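W.,

You were right to be curious about this one. When I first looked at the sequence I had no strong expectations either way, so I just let the prediction run and decided to look at it fresh. Below is the sequence, 420 residues in total, followed by the output.
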Amino acid sequence: MIQIPKGCKDMLPADAYLWQAVEDTARETAQLYGFKEIRTPVFEHTELFLRGVGDTTDIVNKEMYTFLDKGGRSITLRPEGTAGVARAFVENGLQGGAMPFKAYYLISAFRYERPQAGRLREFHQFGAELYGAAAPTADAEAILLASRFLRELGLGDVTTLRLNSIGCKSCRARYAEALREHFRPHIGEMCEDCRERFTKNPLRILDCKNEGCKKFTADAPSMLDYLCEDCRAHFETLKQLLTQAGVAYIVDPRIVRGLDYYSRTVFEFTTDLIGAQATVLGGGRYDGLLEQMDAKPTPAVGFAAGIERLLLAMQAVETPLVERLPDVYVAGMDTASRQRALLLAEELRGQGLIVECDLMERSLKAQFKYADKLGVRYVVVIGENELNMGEAEVKHLSTSTAERVKFGEIAQYIKNSRRF
């Protein structure tokens, strides 16, 4: 038997309503803020991620699914959503449209890494991107959207917003030199990745998960001490806006995020419900991303949330999600009544009811057992007499009572009964 690839997981019909609840909440919340959906290809030219995500990241160096297509072109399954949205924004001429440009996405993405709870090789994200606005109010709106989304999922009280600024190019360059001075005496004791990051991008060292390296990052200089006046003012205004909006946060100078395109604001919503400070949503500002892609510089801010991790957190807090079960089961007692049951079921569906009927030619007793397993509240029974009289017996499974109702009145009868 061929099995599913390692690091992938089936979403079974019994769990679909959980995923749909998260996705529906994502859509509804994004739309409240004026964001519209965007869909981009599941694979792109590899160069997009080399230039967009950054060649000093673990994603590019270790985790991308890259292959040559039949034309000899290097293609990569998307490891994240922002780079693809940026390409679509430029390629489709959206830079010349009304600003700000706001888009959200619900995607699957792929990274080759060790599978663990909430971290799979194929994973799913909800993300939001805002282009064209450089003001801290744009950062605040992205965070407010993210915060509201988590609250709607029942995670508002169990997640913590961690906030930092990693500055612009000029102040970050000064900070990079300060980090090199700090790490230089210890670099020989650090992991191979950090030794490479020391030259290319020492900020990446702060994101290292190696325990041997963490003891050297613990007392590293803080980026907040190296911010230029503009970046400092931007960060202070953002903090004031969040405070006035009632969004609590912790300033965490160790947050740098895992992608090279970030600048100024970076943030994460973390929880300890699914591991030590596990990040369920993260984002920030990336004003230099389009410039890295040889496009017109355009300020941008956004975030992405891992749906698998959100579901784990929701399970931990027992977020009340109720699957909508079938309203009605239409049972037929013989061939003619089963055929009429199929047609009646279709009529009831046209009235907005979820309806099941017998497709297995079961006995009436077996149909009732099946209806009970489905969680149906009403069983409509049709036999020869019912066909002749144009009415059916509607049984309430919860009360074991029954009434005879004309075929054309069944939908309204059930809708009225559901109110009580």
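Here's what jumped out at me. Residues 16-32 form the longest helix (17 residues). And, maybe more interesting for your project: Residues 391 and 406 are 4 Å apart (CA to CA).

Coffee later to discuss?

I.
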